[in-house]
Fold each of these.
Amino acid sequence: MTFVLGPNQYGKAENRVVRIYRDTARHEIRDLNVSSALRGDFTDAHVTGDQANVLPTDTQKNTAFAFAKQHGITSPEDYALALGSRFLDVTPAATASRVEVEEYAWDRIDVGGQGHDHAFARRGGEVRTTVVTQDRSGDTPRQWVVSGLKDLVILKSTGSEFKGFLQDEYTTLQEADDRILATSLVARWRYETTEGVDWNKSFDDIRTVLLETFATTYSHALQQSLYAMGSAVLESHPEVAEIKFSAPNKHHFLVDLSPFGVENDGEVFIAADRPYGLIEATVQREGGSDAGDAWLTVPGFC
Amino acid sequence: MTFVLGPNQYGKAENRVVRIYRDTARHEIRDLNVSSALRGDFTDAHVTGDQANVLPTDTQKNTAFAFAKQHGITSPEDYALALGSRFLDVTPAATASRVEVEEYAWDRIDVGGQGHDHAFARRGGEVRTTVVTQDRSGDTPRQWVVSGLKDLVILKSTGSEFKGFLQDEYTTLQEADDRILATSLVARWRYETTEGVDWNKSFDDIRTVLLETFATTYSHALQQSLYAMGSAVLESHPEVAEIKFSAPNKHHFLVDLSPFGVENDGEVFIAADRPYGLIEATVQREGGSDAGDAWLTVPGFC
Amino acid sequence: MTFVLGPNQYGKAENRVVRIYRDTARHEIRDLNVSSALRGDFTDAHVTGDQANVLPTDTQKNTAFAFAKQHGITSPEDYALALGSRFLDVTPAATASRVEVEEYAWDRIDVGGQGHDHAFARRGGEVRTTVVTQDRSGDTPRQWVVSGLKDLVILKSTGSEFKGFLQDEYTTLQEADDRILATSLVARWRYETTEGVDWNKSFDDIRTVLLETFATTYSHALQQSLYAMGSAVLESHPEVAEIKFSAPNKHHFLVDLSPFGVENDGEVFIAADRPYGLIEATVQREGGSDAGDAWLTVPGFC
Amino acid sequence: MTFVLGPNQYGKAENRVVRIYRDTARHEIRDLNVSSALRGDFTDAHVTGDQANVLPTDTQKNTAFAFAKQHGITSPEDYALALGSRFLDVTPAATASRVEVEEYAWDRIDVGGQGHDHAFARRGGEVRTTVVTQDRSGDTPRQWVVSGLKDLVILKSTGSEFKGFLQDEYTTLQEADDRILATSLVARWRYETTEGVDWNKSFDDIRTVLLETFATTYSHALQQSLYAMGSAVLESHPEVAEIKFSAPNKHHFLVDLSPFGVENDGEVFIAADRPYGLIEATVQREGGSDAGDAWLTVPGFC
């Protein structure tokens, strides 16, 4: 029997690229975590060890840093598109490139009511993400941009219930009319196109829609909150083809204070670590565009 | 325009199930991290918030713990198969179940040359894994077992080179005749069948083949080491249909001691954190069986 | 030879207490991580195993949750003082109590320009801390409050140098006239008193002083920035007896782009993980008050 | 009012030093995480920013790597003593040095029943530690070695009880006659002397004593197990002056399966994350030697 190389990719992961724009005294900072990978026919590299077709991961790293200057970073998406194209250009054996970027936000430190020119505090909280895939294996080259955010921890202290669920002999859960709903949201959306999108504006607006919809939607379940959030994004953003969520239900259990004669009417909770519910869902346009390889190796969404 | 629910799944993640077998004075321990999920037509739960079709994640948790006793845990695979079947049985709306298990190994504490009856030390190092998927959406129900290990940190202090690679204008890497090769291996393999396999024996033997092949293969690149390891597994284990690897190249850079007049001929290295090469590869049987949904939502491998 | 019990403490660590104030439709949230411990003569518990003097950690946990309602949480410090007193009251063998609190901040989700009544997003970034120690081992009971923050990641993209340092034969570092200075700040300060302090206001103001001083101080070294920050706090806050810092120098190395013919004049950096400089310093009032056991078992500061 | 510099130290943390001994075909590996720090009168560096007395952390890093070759690594303790002495020799302003080392163990990969010459698997599990302090601030120079281990996860599935404890109105805990006892042990012991100790042998033997005593001691409480373990070490190791423990009580709660009609007689547990009991204790020789600054800034033990 013969063995063959199946799906594969290789690259340099987690290049911590920090770019300072210092053309004026008022600096700007972009703080990225960049991972690149190439797919293709790298059979020789695997089977015989011949590396003649392999652009080393070290070279991918060098390019990621050089492009921070040569191409610049106006948005994670624009930078990732440029980087991925470059890797295809110089690697004949590659049929596809994949560039993943995480961006950490920084705020200017406030001094006397004014943001400082060159002193910053990292915002913390959620991380902006993009995964850009460019494929030339078929007749027509294709490219996809899947952007999003992760680690956005949100909570509603009321306006959430969970009841009317299926029961079996292992059911012990009580129905809840009023509970805390909390999650550490991961959302990723696929853009219909890679041209003509204002990446930064789209990101900011979609983030706002997600937060506002979460806040204002009465929740029958986390699934239903997510679906409402996704629908609101598709409704307001024609440039988005579909949106996917991965949302741990971060349980906050009401603590039983009755043994101590203390009432607890939704006031004292224990935030639990594990286990946690995990809800994963996609909201799509009916008859929407083909996703192709857009979601291939997107962490948590394939 | 109308929006629709796309691919989705939900369940309880990371149930930390510890099962003690204490039928004799010589106890046994199985220490698992269990995550279950259901897929199917859960449109109502998402769109209207009606949970009538939803087996709560809390119930999935209860079942995971109850089955640790009622079904028992002879292997992660056997336990996961039973649990996944159960969830399909009691959830008509579900078309598929997915049960993922991580197992942490414990060794008996040695007392005077003998393993103690009921005192254990956690082995540390790698974690055994399985992802079992059962699908009844088509005409014929199907089930897949993808088992493996993760966090197996291995290193060769010689017998590894990297040269003859593709060059471009961003190349600065020097060719290496003798370097450290190290990775934190994740390997997952799909079994051809879910019946008649001795899960524990297969796991132990495959682990041995992986380690021995890594040790004894002269490495032209991490890709080639992985391919050799995968081929050796397929060669010796007909019950394995294919094997996939995700292997960070944990760089150990030779430290330049020449400014201090100190020679460093492969003796002093700095172990780097980020960035790291990341090699992902599959070794398959030529004309092998269809993987179906076996790899769907397998972390790092889809 | 005889062995004796030396310094010891025990308690319940990391109670994740979430308190919702819902007296009006506009909810408030306090999100704490609470750890309590008792010190004293617990010789029997250790030597013979007799637990008659031991208030179980489980009871400490129950009390932490009950007090979230019964005493309430207006500030971490006020809550910790109450909790620590309680434990001393009910545990005759204890000579001292220690309560450590971390607080995670939440912001209201903005909906149409207004903060929502009951929907919140976790702020991320730094964590507010306090360690409250109450000791009755001596003639006069004493209590200390050490408050602070951790994980405040701050960066200056210019206005920082490092030169004129001591040299030896292992020196390779070049002097730097203009570099990035970045740290993940941990600061803890001891209050002179435990009464009459507006804990929330003090915290907010000190945080502002730290940030503003970091931003506006030209830095000759991280040590000097910290000293300036500490002095500014002592200058403006008579209620603070002393302040301690633990500050990793999060190195951002200028990337050498010259092999590619690309200039890099302070624009492209790699953010390194390890190793990192670690600077620890105290700024005190000359002839200041005795710290007693205030810093005993304060993580990173003893 | 004047402010002054209080206790301070600075250095390079987490140098990941890997040393391969390759004098014969049978290689040896030492894998260390090295952190060094200097204490002393560094007032100028803090107050005026003058770095003339400061041996840069970068130089400390260089020295750590160079000494891996020049001095060699026969044990963490021996290497740390040499490194700390060197830093004092070349830094006149320093009154004390502190070198902390963590060591990760590797096993040879077994090939056909024989350990391979140059292929290794990281053992995982516990980490060996040492903190070496050398002080010349007083009339007589002093040095201390505090060695130990951390992250040793151990468990007894029976032979552990907890009862007879103090009760108050917040008590809900039931007495337990037979429970799981588990911890992730951190133990650190101070050696009486820094000369004439066989560091590797002492470490191995003390580790064995700790494990055997844990296994064979019937436990009335984690405190009592720790005290027994510490006493056994002092009993058998005259070179040890005192030993300290930090031991989270990793709770394994019996799962209530009675709602499902399933008995659970100590067979099915849930391993909880937070909160956890945290037990910290010291066992000393009566009238033992003065610890001086041995424990100063030892993580978790001061």
Amino acid sequence: MSAEEKQEYMDQIMVRAQTLIEALPYIRDFNNKKVLVKYGGSAMLDRKLEESVIKDVALLKLVGMKPIIVHGGGKEINRWIDKVGKKSEFVEGFRVTDRDTMEIAEMVLNRVNKNLVQMVENLGVKAVGISGKDGGMLHVDKKMPDGKDIGFVGDIREVNPQLLDTLLENDFIPIIAPIGLGDDGETYNINADDAACAIAAAISAEKLAFLTDVEGVYRDPDDKNSLISVLDMDEAEELISQGTVQGGMLPKVNNCMEAVRAGVGRVHILDGRKEHCLLLEFFTKKGIGTAIISKENGWYENELED
Amino acid sequence: MSAEEKQEYMDQIMVRAQTLIEALPYIRDFNNKKVLVKYGGSAMLDRKLEESVIKDVALLKLVGMKPIIVHGGGKEINRWIDKVGKKSEFVEGFRVTDRDTMEIAEMVLNRVNKNLVQMVENLGVKAVGISGKDGGMLHVDKKMPDGKDIGFVGDIREVNPQLLDTLLENDFIPIIAPIGLGDDGETYNINADDAACAIAAAISAEKLAFLTDVEGVYRDPDDKNSLISVLDMDEAEELISQGTVQGGMLPKVNNCMEAVRAGVGRVHILDGRKEHCLLLEFFTKKGIGTAIISKENGWYENELED
Amino acid sequence: MSAEEKQEYMDQIMVRAQTLIEALPYIRDFNNKKVLVKYGGSAMLDRKLEESVIKDVALLKLVGMKPIIVHGGGKEINRWIDKVGKKSEFVEGFRVTDRDTMEIAEMVLNRVNKNLVQMVENLGVKAVGISGKDGGMLHVDKKMPDGKDIGFVGDIREVNPQLLDTLLENDFIPIIAPIGLGDDGETYNINADDAACAIAAAISAEKLAFLTDVEGVYRDPDDKNSLISVLDMDEAEELISQGTVQGGMLPKVNNCMEAVRAGVGRVHILDGRKEHCLLLEFFTKKGIGTAIISKENGWYENELED
Amino acid sequence: MSAEEKQEYMDQIMVRAQTLIEALPYIRDFNNKKVLVKYGGSAMLDRKLEESVIKDVALLKLVGMKPIIVHGGGKEINRWIDKVGKKSEFVEGFRVTDRDTMEIAEMVLNRVNKNLVQMVENLGVKAVGISGKDGGMLHVDKKMPDGKDIGFVGDIREVNPQLLDTLLENDFIPIIAPIGLGDDGETYNINADDAACAIAAAISAEKLAFLTDVEGVYRDPDDKNSLISVLDMDEAEELISQGTVQGGMLPKVNNCMEAVRAGVGRVHILDGRKEHCLLLEFFTKKGIGTAIISKENGWYENELED
Amino acid sequence: MSAEEKQEYMDQIMVRAQTLIEALPYIRDFNNKKVLVKYGGSAMLDRKLEESVIKDVALLKLVGMKPIIVHGGGKEINRWIDKVGKKSEFVEGFRVTDRDTMEIAEMVLNRVNKNLVQMVENLGVKAVGISGKDGGMLHVDKKMPDGKDIGFVGDIREVNPQLLDTLLENDFIPIIAPIGLGDDGETYNINADDAACAIAAAISAEKLAFLTDVEGVYRDPDDKNSLISVLDMDEAEELISQGTVQGGMLPKVNNCMEAVRAGVGRVHILDGRKEHCLLLEFFTKKGIGTAIISKENGWYENELED
Amino acid sequence: MSAEEKQEYMDQIMVRAQTLIEALPYIRDFNNKKVLVKYGGSAMLDRKLEESVIKDVALLKLVGMKPIIVHGGGKEINRWIDKVGKKSEFVEGFRVTDRDTMEIAEMVLNRVNKNLVQMVENLGVKAVGISGKDGGMLHVDKKMPDGKDIGFVGDIREVNPQLLDTLLENDFIPIIAPIGLGDDGETYNINADDAACAIAAAISAEKLAFLTDVEGVYRDPDDKNSLISVLDMDEAEELISQGTVQGGMLPKVNNCMEAVRAGVGRVHILDGRKEHCLLLEFFTKKGIGTAIISKENGWYENELED
């Protein structure tokens, strides 16, 4: 190496050291905190994005947090239903999940599940793939929209966190497929967002991050520069009543608000299409998405202004 | 109830109490012992038999043992390969497991796995379904019979029992699909008998029971009354060299002997087609199959004669 | 063995397996629960009955419960008092326990105590014989019926469960002689039923079983077919106010009700003259005696009807 | 109080403080060490002496040691045998212990046992009275001197220290009656000195103290001023071969030497007729009896000279 | 030794044994209790007194208590300030602690701290010297008397007892210099009496002993025979309102009362100029100083009269 | 923010995320490993450098390592000795450390010690400052070069790691001043490099890093481009015997080699004058200094070539 090359190398790695040092307060504050990542939909379609999510989660684990992944099936489930030539029936706008559909859904979810495990393990970090059937973790009631039977779809009645606690205490990353058991001993499908909320509440997670295909919540939906970094519950309700939060955004924000009410410290809406979105949100002051918080849960005074 | 009916009821339940009392020495001696059950093949085809195996395993857990199930895929894997119209190639007598075949095998095994979990959970006992990928439990080398590539088939190089220990200590029944990770980060299929042997040895299991479709080992294969209850390693070798143990029985017995050599206390060949074969073998003096033992592993003096 | 003999053997042991499987839900539900057995009186006189009680208790331990025995002295104490030619004095209907009588009582109780320990140990199960003096477990006030001094007879003022907890956690069966310490540093005799109630309440036992010489509580004392399997506290009070429960049964039922009020899950009146009465009561749906329960303590909805 | 009285009071309590301070190095060095006290014979006959022994043991516990008492039956056993008019038979110089004798012996030993427990408890210190039957602690072979049957007398074959460890870890003082179980399930009497040695060796006691009715070992038996404070194993053997140690002293010294060989740190022969002999031996440099030590067990260089 | 010399020796060591036995109830009652000793001022000036305090503390540790020392700097700090020729400024009667003064104070306090550690270690007992900066134990607000800046002097806002708990659980004696950290990241001096009170309250100490240069509280300040052994909170307030407690005694008593209110079991004012004052107060019934107690904190009925 | 500004912000924080991800394998491999940093000399003189070292150490802690600091006194000790006008005497080239000098050295070292604690605590990370006197950690023999007395200078005879283990297990960073206790109860000064080696060996540290004022070891001392990244023990000996390593470098390299021989995994010579030298060495493949390793201690095959 010439003297210049050497200097260049030193400059490069010095930037690296500085970056690590800047992460220090975040690493310190999140030490041992449970962080649940809901991962599905668009963010799942792209292998490179998938790797970036998995690396982020592995890093969160290595710097002392306790991450958990709840995943959906992406578009794979529908693709398989089509593949086997199955026709879906709809009731009250819900697709009916008959026994065959449930079987396909479970196989696809298990496959996604073990793929994620494999990606984490290949980074040298320990992960365990489970569904809500394992350890009797998720018990469901049959979902009956307007009293109509839509098959093996369940609403979570009870979360038994014993297996989850065991895995977290022994330094495994739990990766969870949203499947549960009914009182009839049958397998039920669960909406992955609902599963993430219920589990985050049951284990008093510090953070719940939804990897979505939007950037976050805008103060003015037409102005891409009006993204809200930190949104207080009161303001969120105001935005809803004003009609600013509407359309596809409405159920997402409602879901987040419910999780905050159930005791989750802070719920993040992130753009899962951005590489390393978890690190960018958690390890920078401003973040890249929208964090929904409650004043009761102890956020910092000056955060709303920043 | 008439006086006679009452007497009859009392007689019946008295038999029950006597039976429980007779089980006392077995329950006492196996307390806290690890018992690995290899379950697959014929015993898996019949729902009633499946339930009987699962109930036996649940009971072993409840009376204080630490059971573990390693399962195969039964004939389901082949059925699915045929279903999707896949043609299998053979090399050196081994079916080549290409990426598509491996994907099907993994989906089927995961499905069997979660079904078994569900059956145990429905009895009110805690189970967790994992594969050798979870917690990095099974690391494999690519199998190369006579140097030929037969695809994603692995030989176990290392068992990392950390996840297994965690689950056993926290009172879950681990149910294991025989799938492992290669150094190339790929998923590999493992022979279920081999997986059972390797895991039993790695956790120093007290017992390893193979649920097969034979009754056990005969002293004279033509005489169904010559079943051997307890077979010492020396005698086993003699039966092999004499040619008494041969054909399909030979690899089974060799497998058992290898497990005994690797430190497993006692290896049982049971007829998985018999209901409650596990209880019948473990909780009666004579048993119903063949137990292969080593004098070094501390069997009781007078057992060979009984 | 001929083919028929073999079949017969198989049939026999299959019944055995079925019985064990039927016990599964009971074993599951009582896992790790504390069960206190009050043992004395008639059930103690017969060596065969004594062995049946001890085997039952050992089995309860082996299938995962935490049994404790509180015993009386049977008729041995009186026999010894007569033997040494001691004349008893009576005050207010209570036999006066002077220092000599107390000494004899303690010797007899200790002898019974160590005999029970020996019987359990001979089954290969660990037991420890203690009295309320050990570890300062039972502290008493001098009993003064109508202000009269009847000697070294005590009412329990305080149960210190530390020694009991230590033994239970370390998998010993505690066997307890009902003797306590007074504030004067003297040894006091305690009624064994009272000791059982006080200890069961202090350790929040799930079950307290009195082995008596009656079958249980009858709805109609003249009709042997009117035995009540499960008796709610409200109904019990009704039976008392109606005069149905009366005579020698009255204090027994009152004792049971007091234990239920003190937080014991369920109190059983069993006929200790029946072999394996503990297993018959605990491991069958209908049971053989009377269980006194409180709706507040969480019994199952449909039990009263069965 | 006058000024003089006050001064006198201060002087008195200052002496007290000085004494406590002088005990500091002994308390420090024996912290958490197991100390087994064999107590029986003459030291047991006198209530005042008994109280002094119990207070010493309680204090050893309170200042951080882990004391254990093994006791004999004093002369009580013989007194009771005479009382019930039983004639003893002798074989090879050993009294034959038939079933009746064993029963009396056990009752007397249990009574002594619970009395000692009571005395410790009355000082506010926790004690638990057990025999070798409890927790299966002492397993014996039938003693057959010259092949002759002398009844229920046993030699310890195995000490199972599990119960003892449990009690010590939970801060109870174990008080042990020297009774054991035979393979025939019967109760056997054990020589208390032998029991003390076997138990001290099994738990690797730091100290074993025999409370006897001699002052210790003399260099010249005729010179009361020649008491040996610290006796090395080599010198002990010399004294025996010289015939200096002889008569009743010989088996005592042999017993001590055996305990040292079995790994006990230091074995003390003390005069149990002296009040507070345990404190006087353990908490003063010179002590009052004879300590038998082995150079291998790490005594201090300069002790032999002092 | 002649017979008389021997007798004399025996008499002497018997007194010693008696003294130890008399300490038994105190040792028993204070077992595992946290005892905080505030040590400073006059008691620190004399090497012999210092050794007596350290020996007392070491003994308290050895007999099972959990002592903690909080020390001041004695007159050393002023001596060093003079030595370096520094002139002190005063504001509102408080000496201004500028950065230089704080540096000197910290150096002197650390020196005193490590000297005390060394003295304890030289007795073979484990001690660890820390200040309130270590483990972030003491966080302070800047003290502003009447709004005036007096430099680096702090009032304790928060005690983080984690380091203290860690040391106590692992059997070290913590020795604490009264220095804390401000929110500005600077080092602040803390009044040692205040530090002792705050720490004693934070760890729920059983006892807090101030080693002062007075004998205690007098009922009549002019009558040296009117020293109060045990002073109830109510009576203390009365003595203050009567003007009996006044002058330099007033802030001392107020400090003690505050500690009692904050949950410390009992606060002792002792004359640190008396050798072994801690043992004399703790291990005798009457004690030598004044113990301030609250009826709510559970003192014994008859103590006020004695 | 304009679109460009936004893009720029995103680019910047993306670099940050990438950097964190690149650190993943290092963080993973060093998890829970003990890393001892010897810090002193030039690296101590500059406040900015000091902060960079402290931030590095805090980060190592936060990402899961167990760092320990052993520090020297920099040039402060000499400065203070001069300040108080003390003349130093020299014997055999060693400065004589008389009692006054030792006192000054201890005060300076304690001051440095508490300053470092304060800097770590101000980052929100827990640190505890101790010397080898605390918990009796460092016991020394008096150093006698050629039999000459040079005062209170010690060579470590024994490291008692109990306090260190306690602090590490409870997540404190221990910061250690190199001072020990002699058998005479006196305080002794210890060479900081020697203390670091002895402590690293006693706790089986994975890494020992010396922050020096050289860049590392050169293959050719005249060629600044010949810095050796990883130096095997064999090659190190060769460089010494060739005379390549000489002068001031010789004792440094010898010290490192001794530590490797004593079981430390890998010893680093780093240039403490470079900011973030610890992160640069530990979290980059090539590092910035020289790591001395032994093939026996399990370095990676291909490291020597890189």
